[in-house]
Amino acid sequence: MKYKFFTRGLLAVLGLMCAVCFALGLHFTETAFAADGDRIDIESYTLTLDVNEFTYSGLEIKPTATVNNGTANLVEGTDYTISYENNVEAGTATVKAEGKGDYTGTLSAQFTINPATDNAWQRSDIDSDVIFYGSYNPEVPAFTVWAKYGSENAIFKFYDGDNKEISAADLATADAGEYKVTAQIAATGSYNAIEEILTDTFRIYPARNNWTQAPKVVEWEYGKFDATVNLFMGVAEHGDVRFTISNQNETFIRDFTVNEGVVTNQNYVKILSDELTAGKYTLSATVNGGNNYQDIPATQVEFEVRQTSNDWMTFPDVVEWQYGNYNKDTNLFLASVNYGTVWFKVKTAEDGEDLTSEFTAVNGIIQEEDGEISNVLSKFEKGKYYVSVRVDVGDANREEIHATGFEFDVIQAANGWQASPNVIAWEYGGYNPNVNLIIGTPLHGTAKFVITDGENNLTREFSLFEGIIDEADNGDVLAIIKNLHAGDYYLVATVASDENGNYSAIEGQTPLQFTVNQAVNDWKVTPSIESWVKGKYNAEVNFVTAEAEHGVVDYVIYKTTDEESIIYQVSNGEVIVDNLAQAGVGYYTLKATVAATDDFSGVERTFTFNVFAQGLPWWAIVIIVVGALGITALVFFILHQKGVLQMLTEKVIVAMRTKMTVDATIAAVRANKVAEAAKRSVAAAEEEERRKAEQDKNDGNLNQ
């Protein structure tokens, strides 16, 4: 409802504004207020022309047209379009206005084009093209006049040297000579006639004569002339061709003619068949001109009457091969004749340079002792080559077969994989370029490789040597491959064609999927911690040691009898709890853990150690034992002196000895435990020093 109220209010305001504008004398074209879908018909409007009468000019006449409703003009091109009919020739022409945009309907008006009465010649001569005998075409205008109107409708008449009228068609066969032409313009409804007749002369010149088919003869063997096969060809534009055959010593036949190349005079046929011996001859062809066309001087063509026929039993050919795949037992050079030896020579196709010496082939296989020809052919690159072929008859009485030749191609080799692309997979962190070979050997060329994750190339293009990536040229590639996370990857292998295109490229192959496997984790340094006596904790001695092949070790130490009593905890290298120094006497459990990731498996080790009760030092125990033994000896000495010992029973003596032995044993055990703890502390310190030294050594190797 709000929108309707707003729209109605807006229309009311616009109506009020229009009323005010009309009151102030402002006007708008009706186009501006045409409602959507309601086009205004212009049939109630007036179409007015600025001029209503014209004189024929030979051009389109277009008076200015205006569409008006009595108060305002419509806009041409926006509100209407104008078209004209019959506005060139004299008569009544029509102008049409057709509504456009917000307007529809059609208006029309007429204007008059009066005939012109001032037609006249603009030049007093007739221009004509140069005409040669037999070349005039009545359908192509060869004569031109210049009148104010109607030049294109001029009427021409022609007369020969006897002033006899001839038709335009007769000019096509008229003899060379001088002729007369007249021109007149007839009246039409648009302009008046020109009564004055123009007269001029023109000449038909003797035709330039030439060969339309150059003289030639189809050669034959001695005694085998066939007039319907061994044609004498030579056609001139004009006139009959006369032939003459001669050898070096005499003329055998003079001035004979042919009908479409066939000798019709039987006497000449007999001479050509029986009397022309094998040898070379000259055919001379000429045309004797006359008034209408020129002579064609004698044109000479060499031809040969061949010896007794020798022909190809197998026409020269070669079994083509792909680049790099020549095999003399397969890629045969074929040619055989009725008699004689066929010799081949391979040349370049462009300049005919010799690439091999002459060689023969028996049943197509090249005959050679040292394999020189085959070695040369096997190294041909892709391209066209030419084979010249000659036949050595070895007998002058027999026909030599003329040397011939043909082209053949060494074809681009269809490339493929001698060893298909492959990758020897590895575990995360375990890549070794000498073990995890990347394989891919093409039949031709050098393979280029890229490793991709399926969306983006992870490496630049690299090449291999026997499956090993060259670190000198591809160190950055090796670094990327060594650090690949576990997962699926693709090896894309391509081979580019060489510059000469000897072999095809290999591209667009389906990428080879391979997997960097999750590593099986293990301990490099087994988790351990030295036990200690309560109150004697030493952080430099009693520390946790552990190192895994992969990942960060997390630690937790808790009382063995209570897992929730945590006294030490490290997570992701950060110490969260450290109460080792305050640990009470008892057994404790150390759990060392490396969490599994996509790259490596998890690893865990748990073991128990002690925090011992407080005890005497070994030296104190030694003093006590020695002191006790001394006092005991002194007491026994005094008692012995006083005779008291004799009063002691054997049991009392044994009991005393036993008691002394037990006390000494307990003291010795305690001393031994303290000594063992000290030894373990020393061993742990030595192991830590050894581990640090080895780590420093490894770090030094990596930096190199």
How would you portray this structure in words?
The protein is of the alpha+beta class. It has six helices and 47 strands. The protein has a six-stranded mixed beta sheet with strand order 41-47-46-43-44-45, with no helix packed on it. A hairpin with a 2-residue loop joins strand 36 (464-465) and strand 37 (468-469). The longest helix is centred in the C-terminal third of the chain and has 54 residues, at 650-703. The chain is flat, with a radius of gyration of 60 Å. The two termini are 84 Å apart.
Please render the helix and strand layout as text:
Blueprint lengths: L1 H22 L16 E2 L4 E4 L3 E3 L9 E4 L11 E6 L5 E9 L3 E2 L1 E9 L12 E2 L2 E2 L10 E2 L10 E5 L5 E2 L10 E9 L8 E12 L5 E7 L2 E2 L10 E5 L4 E6 L4 E6 L1 E2 L2 E2 L2 H10 L3 E9 L8 E11 L5 E7 L2 E2 L10 E5 L3 E8 L12 E2 L2 E2 L5 H7 L4 E10 L11 E8 L5 E7 L14 E5 L4 E6 L11 E2 L2 E2 L1 H12 L4 E9 L16 E5 L6 E6 L3 E2 L11 E4 L5 E6 L2 E10 L2 E5 L7 E9 L8 E10 L5 H25 L7 H54 L1
Parallel strand pairs: 1-7, 3-8, 10-15, 17-24, 26-32, 41-47
Antiparallel strand pairs: 2-4, 5-6, 6-8, 9-11, 12-13, 12-14, 14-15, 16-18, 19-20, 19-23, 21-22, 23-24, 25-27, 28-31, 29-30, 31-32, 33-34, 35-38, 36-37, 38-39, 40-42, 43-44, 43-46, 44-45, 46-47
A few lines on this structure:
The chain is α+β, with helices and mostly antiparallel strands and 704 residues long. It contains 6 helices and 47 strands.
Structural Rg: 60 Å
Structural class: alpha+beta
How would you state the average pLDDT, rounded?
A: 84
The number of helical segments is 6
Which band does the percent of strand residues land in? Answer: 35-45%
Strand order of the largest sheet: 41-47-46-43-44-45
Q: Shape from CA axes?
A: flat
Got a strand count?
A: 47
Biggest β-sheet description: 6 strands, mixed
Calculate the terminal CA-CA distance, rounded to whole Å: 84 Å
> Helicity, in percent?
10-25%
As residue ranges, the low-confidence spans are 1-16, 18-33, 647-656, 700-704
